[in-house]
Amino acid sequence: MEYYFSTKKMSVGYHKRPLIQNMDISVKKGEILTLIGPNGAGKSTVLKSIARQLKLIDGVMYLNNQDMVQMSGAELSQKMAVVLTDKLRTEMMTCEDVVATGRYPYTGRFGILSKADYKVVEEAMELVHVAEIKNEDFTRISDGQRQRVMLARAICQEPEIIILDEPTSYLDVKYKLEFLSVLQEMRRKKHLTVIMSLHELELAARVSDKILCINGEYAERFGKPEEIFVPGYIAKLFSITSGSFDEENGSMELSAADGPAAVFVIAGGGRGKTTYRRLQREGISFITGILFENDLDYPVAKALAAEVITAEAFEPITDMVFKKAKQRMDSCERVICCRKTFGSFEAANQELLAFARQRGKIIETEA
Amino acid sequence: MRLNRTIRYSTVFVLLAAGAAMLLILNVRIGSVEISLPDIAKAVTGKEIDKTTARILWDIRLPRSLAAMILGGALALSGYLLQEFFHNPIAGPFVLGISSGAKMIVSLVMVFLLGRAIKVSSAALILAAFFGAMISMGFVLLMSRKVSNMSMLVVSGVMIGYICSAVTELVITFASDADIVNLHNWSRGSFSGMSWDNVSVMAVIIAVTFGAVFLLSKPLSAYQSGEAYARNMGVDIRLLRALLVILSSILSACIVAYAGPISFVGIAAPHLVKSLLGTAKPILMIPACFLGGSVFCLFCDLLARTMLAPTELSISTVTAVFGAPVVLWVMIRRNKEKQM
User: Fold this and answer.
1) Which CATH number does B2-339 carry?
2) Beta A334-337 vs A362-365: how paired, if at all?
3) Best exposed site among A5, A48, A347, B86 by fewest CB in 10 Å?
4) Do the Cβ atoms of A86 and B221 come within 8 Å?
5) Contact A110 B218 (CB under 8 A)
6) Model pTM?
7) Which residues of A249-270 are buried (b: 16+ CB within 10 A; e: fewer)?
8) How far apart are CA B323 and CA B110, in angstroms?
9) Where are the domains of chain B?
């Protein structure tokens, strides 16, 4: 299939000074490309260059096989809409007025909207659920509402491709999900191509077809989410030094507590996560086990525990693992058990609890 | 909602037009010699009236009132364009020093030519004023690159204005006695001494400029949202900015060439009109501004002529009294909005 938008050796930057060089990006029609990367890495610069707000330093951009530099502003305005982080300046404009400015490329010499234009405006407002605030002044609505009005404005420009710079920043979780759902709907119904930057990595991993990682002087990686969200890469991209990001689940944890482990946590089946996090908040270092490698607790344990005693998934717990667990438990004075009952394949954990009693450990139960 | 708006806009336009017409008649009527309405009607329809009255009407009052109407509209429009250009609500030809720049070059040219007993033509005056306006505008543009703060920009404009005024004063001091009175009056701003020749030249220039501005109303509406969004809409920002500079300078130049610098109308009239309309859409604001400026200047000129008759006040004295409070009100309102 043909690419709808692509770049060849694109270099972007300000005042003829390249900031990010040699980018080769390609997106098919109806795909969602997300830019991720640390603050100040140049995501906005790339987006502004794609939107032709900045001149390319080098290289070419193609939109539908056409060299974008040679397209006229009027031609491009019917194909590409933008929602930038720059605030839209308004004076005495209702939300409907703001959305209606998106019809600009389709109106005549004096920019007067026809009935058909107003219909498009209305539909766009309904699509992002801002129809009820259409008569409110644009300066008097919340940031979240403003962002959705801006999306409605972009939609009513009837673009083939839309450029969004951190569109979800001001939205609460409901509207974040709704915003991205609207994008998906637009892409399914109208084959809208989307290029945006997101701070929410977990959302980026879920909504994007392609991801471009911007870091410093070049685009570090470009590929499908599963190629980007591989263990260890996000920590490297963002130079994470405190805490951790779990690429597979898109969740993050703060740094594990320091010092020798004082507590042993018997967990499993997702029962241990809250205890792990409580101990982390209290600054208590702990050891946990025995966890199967596919347990829900496992990623959190990996991030927060001083040590995790693990057993291979779908296999019986070996004696060696059990011995190791007993030994580690013996070194802790407190034991927290997060389980009420134990399954038949993890009798070892039940034996561990019995062992703790036998050794006179302080036992707390949490379930 | 849309219907309500249409009614509001139409009402405002009707009111402004009626106001301008009424004030035009009052301006012609009132003065040291009152001219009755029937006389005005007779004169306009080409019937015979008393000779002295006819002369006052045709040679003095009517050209002056028409000039106040045309130049007032031009002044408000040029203020509006500058406000949009700089995204600054208190920009205007006077506060940005553009009027003073025009005034300086005009006075230089006048003193130079009058000293050599050469008659100064309208065209030469307008050209000189345009040149002066562009010089000041150039300075303000340079400053606007250095300072993004809107009050700083205005302060630098006021400073430029002072410098130009100082130069003008200096030039006037060296002018011959006979010219001083005229120059002095003009340099303080006045609609007096307009000839039909003046009125027809300004009418043509301002009508053409107005037409050009009106054609820009669509790109101007996109420019209002900010440059990035305007560019996305396919607006050629550079061209638009250049046109705005040139058109507003032509308007300012015309005003200064004929009536000297007039303060505050350029800021006050657009804001008053905007609050009446309840919208900032250029397609409505451009004609409404013009009418608003006409009403404002006709009203102020009427007061300037009649308040302390037979002594005539300078027009800026009156426009300042009514215009300055509006400017203060705009600034206070802006400040409130920022805090919200």
Assistant:
1) 1.10.3470.10
2) parallel
3) A347
4) no
5) yes
6) 0.87
7) ebeebeebbeeebbbbbbbbbe
8) 30
9) 2-339
